[in-house]
Amino acid sequence: MNQQETICAIATTSGGAIGIVRMSGPESLRIICSVCRRITPTTTPRTAILTPICADDGQVVDDAIVTLYPAPHSYTGEDCAEISCHGSRYILNKVIELLIRQGARLAQPGEFTQRAFLNGKMDLSQAEAVADLIASNNRASQQMAMSQLKGHFSSELSKLRDQLLRLTSLLELELDFADHEELEFADRNELLSLAQHIEQRIKTLAHSFETGQALKQGIPIAIIGRTNVGKSTLLNRLLRDDRAIVSDVHGTTRDTIEDVVDIQGITFRIIDTAGIRQTTDTVEQIGIQRTYDAIAKARIVLWLFDEAPSEPEIADILSRAEGKELIPVHNKSDLTPATVTTIAGHVVISISAKHEPTLDALEQRIFQAAGIPDIHEGDIIVSNARHYEALLHADEALARVIDGLNTMIPSDLIAEDLRLTLAALADITGGAITTQETLNNIFSHFCVGK
Question: Which of 181, 274, 277, 300 is buried most, with the most CB atoms less than 10 Å from its CB?
């Protein structure tokens, strides 16, 4: 990528009333002045100006709102301009054509955000949050992305970085003054306590990845039960759409059917499965095996029945759903009143998937079973696999630091693992700890002899 080049791109999807074209780079001001009659080098920055956009022959392409963002006070940290015009695909492409003729080039995917990262407007984790925010499809994933974009995760990592740098600096001092046995720069117990505190925080961040992935990808729910208990009807009700075929014929659903639904701002991936029964039909047997596979992959299992299940059936389902959130659901309550209220400690919810106006009680129980904590601004939940892997590497290296402090191994070996810990955390934000930073920390906080 050549940052000396000026780039442009359409920043909005087609079909809207308004379309936005963005431009960034050293030639942005010159180019925008050449195509907009009312924009000059003295135009007030960050002020919306109504101006015609003109082709080379002077013909007006559109009347647009243009805003200038001079460096460094822009998204990319470079000179930028935004053109808001009518959303016609022809007009947007014509504007892009004019900008390219004046010396800009079409931006590559993600290049605006890449330039923002390279120019220090955001770190790598914040840059990745931009893509997550665009892809967010529910309230929870949007809040996670916004928290990361605002730098809450970066701020937490910065605090850990500073604490680790202090540990590193103390150990480096010990190494530098190893010949002076009378000098003691660090209490090993104090270092151990600090290292354990940092490790606990890193573990907490890594542990949040499971929740983050669930919120980002959707929480899988398997709807299971015998044939004709109303599984497909329930799926359609939860989706508020006739997604699955409903029939009184046993074995109608022979394969899994999957779709997503939003419940209280959380995305759930609901899987309708083939009915469980004894059968000699080869195709139906394959479908039933896929039902068992769906149970294994699910986080929540909705077990439907329209009459009290037998003891062998209960034992089989409990065994297959072990470790899952099991919700027993008595369906067709309008036809057969519930005869059981709990199964192995699980409260049975009674519904009529076909006739009840709402399924609010069941949806509330599903939401509770997900175990998703309330997410507030500033909460940090890791949802990026790359971040998770880096946290695991940091935790492994820090565990060796703690072991070294406990067993009094040489400081140089401990210092090396501390550097590996710092490097792993730096991978998340795209930064790095330099030798100069360590030296600066030593002499600013632990100045020897002044």
Answer: 274
